[in-house]
Amino acid sequence: MAKKSGGGGIGLVLLIGAIALLASIPKVVWITLAVVAAIGAAVYVFSQNKSKNKKEKPWNSTPPPSAGLLSDLSAVLELPRTTTAEQDTVAAQEPVSVYRDASAPRSHKVPAPPVGYGAATWIPRGQPVTIADTVIHGGLVYVGTSLRTPSGRPDPALIDPSKKVAARGDYADRHFMDYWPCYSDITPEARRAYLQWLAGGRQDPTADIGYVFLFFYGLERRVILDGSGEGEEARTAQADRPAIAQEIRRLLSVYGSQSGSFQRYASDLLTIVEIDTYSDKLYAQPLPEFPDSYELPLYLRLALGQCAMDNVPVPAPLALAWVRRDPNIYKRTPATRCAEQFEKLFHERYVALLNGGLVLPKNKTKLKFLYRAASAALMAHGEIKVTFGDTPDVTVLTGPVKKLQEVVDVVTSELDAYSRFLGRSPEAADALEGLLLLPPNLWPSDARQKLDALLARITAGMVTMQLQEVAACLGTAQRLERATVTGLARALGGLHVGMEPDVLNGARTPKPEETVVLFSVPQGASVSCSSAPFQSAALTVQLALAVALADGELGAEEFRHLRQSIEGWTHLTAAHQQRLRAHMRYLMAVPPSLTALKKKLEPLAAPAKEAIAKFMVTVAQADGAVSPAEIKMLEKVYKVLGVDPQKVFGDVHAAAATPTGAPSAQAVSTVTPRPAAAGFQLDAARIAALQHDTDKVSALLSNIFTEEPVEAKPIAPAVVAEPEPEVHLPDAPLGLQGLDAAHTAFVHQLLSRPEWTREELLDLASDLELMLDGALERVNEAAFDAHDGPLTEGDDPITINRDLLESQPT
């Protein structure tokens, strides 16, 4: 019992000691131990769950094949399908191993990625490709998911099929494109719009210019990056250049006028594409078509420089191309409204006024061409610089431009009337009223053929026809008013053809159904005769025909006598005599009126009137008999002349017994007696003796021989004519005002390049006869006035202020 009770006491002591020991442990220790226990419990539970999952998922189970990726790819890129055998072959080349354990390997085959995913591919022209259910037939694009630029950035022109494309897009919306667009960065809506624009043939003029630039970046890369070098890939890219050049020209025709920036970049890239085709004598080659531009194309500048190098005159077509595209040459409305006529007339006047053509000096400024890429991703590629040896840049000179300007002014002045006619009646370009305002050599081919046929008839002799028939031979006239008839006479006069009546010198305007006489005029002679001697002769013929036709007809002898009389008036020129014969033919159809002649005869002196009266008697007796009707007409003529009518019978008998004379056409000429069989002939000696009377009669007649005096029209109220729009490029580049021609040309040259060396600008200033420092100061002052900033910066090199350029609207 003692042992038992002693053992129990020891245990109790130990229990009490343990409790005392636990009670002595700090409270912080207990809290720490509790946290550790909780963490341990959580780890144990997690490990148990993981073990359970492993037992539920066997080691050899594989996930079901995912159709999601391939389904999405087929939605954005349509590609040719491969056969099962082809798929097995591709899969066998790229095995993926999955191991059961270390001793039991097992392989699984996976399909290759679809074509179009991976390295980019250039799609040639004409090869179709489908992106996001949109078929693009034109080609000339890059397709793929990987295409880097020299700087390592993704190329903005790359069409990445993996990028999301919206269901709808509007390429006319200008809110979806950045200033430097990139296909991978634009919105899905913009991608859809871009693909639709490509599928539509890249030709809708309403498209935002950003989409055009995005496509243009691909052409630029193909030319600059892929086409550089000498490898197989470069040669393949170079083979695409003709197609690219054709596409750039097409894009310029659609979008060049919408964006000055695109016009500039596209024109420069076209130059890079075609520069290898330039020969050493471009001025001798047919000129290609040039896109509109604010600068002279390199082709023209090189051709002109070659003219200077070879010391040959600039051909007229090359000079005309220079005129049309040089912003320093001012061109008025006729240059564009009458473009075809302007071209033909310019060729003629250029050769005539400049003695065969403009010969250019060989100046100091050397010809260069610089190209900067439009794509932001290619800017790191640097500047492409092309030089042409010692070939000068003659377009910096002001002297040749001034000479061309003079020719342009002459041509436009000659076309002013026709241009204004077209402005009023644009649909009547080929109407007779319009054609008569042009030199006949500028008439359309069909009108010119009709005119040549009429001229052939006139060459054989005089032609008598109705006025409306003449007009019909040349074109359709709206109304044969006086202005149209005088224009017709003036046009025929330029072709050495005269017309009676002489409407250019005041003759009455014939009605459309009335007769006119057309006749040829000797080369170099005037077709119009307004001098007093001619008018005196014409008056004599008019009186003679009035007498000869008094009996109702003009006999053959009377006609012959009048004709011989005209040919005998030797003081008249051959042109005068030809017109008098035509005038006589006209009077046979339209007999003169004594009443109308009376006013013209009143100023004549009495001796001249008596001499004319006697000449009328010889005309009446030319056929061997004087009828009572002719006697009556002679009495009227005598009365009109102021000669006593009682003298008619005495003069008739005297002429029958001893033929006397005929009056001179200028004053009065006499006829010497001849045998009757010989008829009446003029005595040249007597005509010479009476020449002193000619001056007196000419003085009397100088102001009175006008059949249809021009009535003074009342002064109409002043009407301000609407000014015609002028078509020309601005003379003040960048809006810089107050610059003369030399400084304006200097600015145009500065803007053609982003950077110049001081030596280059010294040559340029020397060609323009300017001091370089003074010219730069003058230009920069104008730039400060217009834009609050200088145009140039630095001393050597001298750079152009890009901020100022980019602030200008395109």
From TrEMBL:
Residue ranges annotated for the TerB-C domain, each copy included: 670-806
Positions of the TerB N-terminal domain: 125-335
Coiled-coil features, chain-numbered ranges: none
InterPro entries linked: DjlA_N (IPR007791), TerB-C (IPR028932), TerB-like (IPR029024), TerB_N (IPR025266)
SUPFAM superfamilies linked to this entry: TerB-like (SSF158682)
Domain Co-chaperone DjlA N-terminal: 541-647
Transmembrane segments: 7-23, 29-47
Domain of life: Bacteria
UniProt cross-references to Gene3D superfamilies, sorted A to Z: TerB-like
Keyword vocabulary terms for this entry: Membrane, Transmembrane, Transmembrane helix
Protein name: Tellurite resistance protein TerB
Species name: Alicycliphilus denitrificans
